[in-house]
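Following up on my earlier thread - several people asked me to post the actual chain instead of describing it. Fair enough. Here it is, all 120 residues.
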Amino acid sequence: MEMSLAKEEPNVVTEAGFKVLIESGYHVEVVCKTAAFRKNSVWHGLWVLRAVSEEGVEKQLVTARARSEGDHIRIRTFKTVIGLMSFLIDLGFSLIAFPVNEGQRWSYSLSQSDDDVIEG
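Reply from S.P.:
Thanks for posting it. Predicted structure:
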């Protein structure tokens, strides 16, 4: 018997579903899981993303493909700031900031206006 991901794991969402949630009003929460460090000119660390509704419902971003260990889903992680920034820009965000200390969080919302940016 096949079960849908939504029924099996209600607090997770794949990349395609994540984008739909963000476009429908959820905000993105970036969580730093491992403190960032600079190696040469690249910042490394471990970040995960969540889509969070106004009511506080959280959906963890997961990978869409099954791994060799079976059909277990995996949390989508970002190991460099470049990867994190690329993903956020592809979602439609034009201003990017990121937490650098373990446990820190940062939120983004598509409803935030670029008009808030002061150009000099």
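The CA atoms of residues 46 and 79 lie 5 Å apart. That should answer part of your original question.
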